[in-house]
Amino acid sequence: MRPQAAAFPVKNHRFASAGSRLQPTRRLGYIRRMQRPSPALSTAQVLLFGAAIVTLSMGIRHGFGLWLQPITQAREWSRETFSFALAIQNISWGLAGIFAGMLADRFGAMRVIMAGGLAYALGLIGMAYAVTPLQFTLSAGTLIGVAQAGTTYAVVYGVIGRNVPAARRSWAMGIAAAAGSFGQFLMVPLEGLLISHFGWQAALALLGLGALLMVPLARGLREPGFAGAGPVVRDQTILQALGEAFRYPSFQMLMAGYFVCGFQLAFIGVHMPSYLKDHGLAPQVASYALALIGLFNVLGTYASGSLGQRMKKTYILSFIYMARALAIAAFLALPLTPVSVYLFSSVMGLLWLSTVPATSATVAQIFGTIHLSMLGGFVFLSHQVGSFLGVWLGGVLYDRSGNYDLVWYGAIALGVFASLINLPVREAAIVRRGVPLPAGGRL
Fold it and tell me: Residue 46: which of 118, 124, 108 has the closest Cα?
């Protein structure tokens, strides 16, 4: 790992002068000075295996809305019961993501992803055979949420940040996000076919077997610097890194914007299939709509990552949130037909996960990559709090009022808010006292 840059004096950091040894500390028991940098994985290897893992993990997740009606009808549960379990999944993902990021930063991503793949398989099988709301919430909610924390963006982006040069980092993160989008395009129609041909329970069990593929794929992200039993060296403790980030206004604004992202995406992903069926559209319209979101999101996330190398990422984020608000408003104003659904899905697909590379690359640019998985986990926790509310409120308000109107209108208002809150974010690297800027400004 290379030393990080600094622009913003931070008090109470235990740094000696540049080139000298750090003073001993036992604060978290793992700080050591690196004697020489560890060799990095090739960009091609990181992207190949990271993209495959994200494709599986996100692809499975994006299809959960297809199970809402089959499960609630078979179990005679309300939509609120199903929505609450997926809301818990989102919040569990966010909370566990912090600790998954800490473990990945300290011991490497490989072990975390392997554990996540095993938990994913167990959660899907438990989701299939749960017979009470509590069992369903523990499997579909808690266990799968923890599994997603270890197999998606925060952990994989940590590997990218440590192994891909800063000049190509935003582009590489765009590639990984596009892989998650391709997973949605690939997996959602497949999940629909599995449900129609084998029934909803067997379909979940088959997906559980597919999730196990993440375990061998994780070996492709085994970083040389984490080969030994000891942790990797860093110039900040966890508490110092967290204190620095949460005192920085731009970090708070990024978290606020990501909250909105989670609210919008979770509500649409889980409730739009049922919204379309409630309005008399054929079931395959929902499957095609989610697949179109995934297909166009491949283009959107790649474009976002590439543009982030050329222009301010905060402007990209502001545009994305405002465009989402306008797209939702147009969708509600137009007559609801398969054509209008497909047009809306295509536009939303371009905007769907395009916030991910821009947000993650901004965090890396400001704070460096040493604690990137952990800080990314905290930003993602904000996203998942929004996801919790989007999924849960969708079910609650539907059961109370018989429609989703209030949640749609809330998604529009939040989009405008997120667009404005991202404009003043500062992307410049923090300057830490006693830590020199590396040659070429690379973080």
Answer: 108
